[in-house]
């Protein structure tokens, strides 16, 4: 084998080794990013669970019966008696 052949073989061997090292490095980076993605998905799922729990709690706290009970107990509000209601009628268009 000539000197040029040996140099070419050494150069090709170096390129193959560097390529293999880069493949390993990229694979390592991919695994790190995939682990990070899994963590983010787990956080998203936890946030979704919390959001659904809060929506259920809001629905339970805003029921008509609960709001009415709170109005009576905490604010002293009451349903007006029929004698307390004043009906105001609006005159129609063009009518006095």
Automatic annotation (TrEMBL):
The keyword Ligase does not apply. One of its GO terms (cellular component) is plasma membrane. It is found in: Cell inner membrane; Cell membrane. One of its GO terms (biological process) is FtsZ-dependent cytokinesis. Transmembrane segments: none annotated. It is a single-pass type II membrane protein. Keywords: Cell cycle, Cell division, Cell inner membrane, Cell membrane, Membrane, Transmembrane, Transmembrane helix. The keyword Cell inner membrane applies. Pfam families: FtsL (PF04999). Its main location: membrane. HAMAP family: FtsL. Essential cell division protein. May link together the upstream cell division proteins, which are predominantly cytoplasmic, with the downstream cell division proteins, which are predominantly periplasmic. Belongs to the FtsL family. Part of a complex composed of FtsB, FtsL and FtsQ. This is Cell division protein FtsL. It comes from Thiorhodococcus drewsii AZ1.
């Amino acid at each position: 084998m000539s000197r040029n052949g040996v140099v070419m073989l050494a150069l090709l061997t170096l390129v193959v080794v560097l390529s293999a090292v880069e493949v390993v490095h990229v694979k390592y980076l991919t695994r790190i990013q995939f682990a990070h993605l899994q963590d983010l998905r787990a956080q998203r799922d936890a946030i979704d669970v919390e959001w659904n729990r809060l929506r259920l709690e809001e629905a339970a706290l805003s029921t008509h019966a609960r709001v009415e009970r709170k109005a009576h107990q905490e604010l002293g509000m009451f349903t007006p008696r029929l004698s307390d209601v004043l009906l105001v009628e609006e005159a129609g268009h063009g009518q006095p």
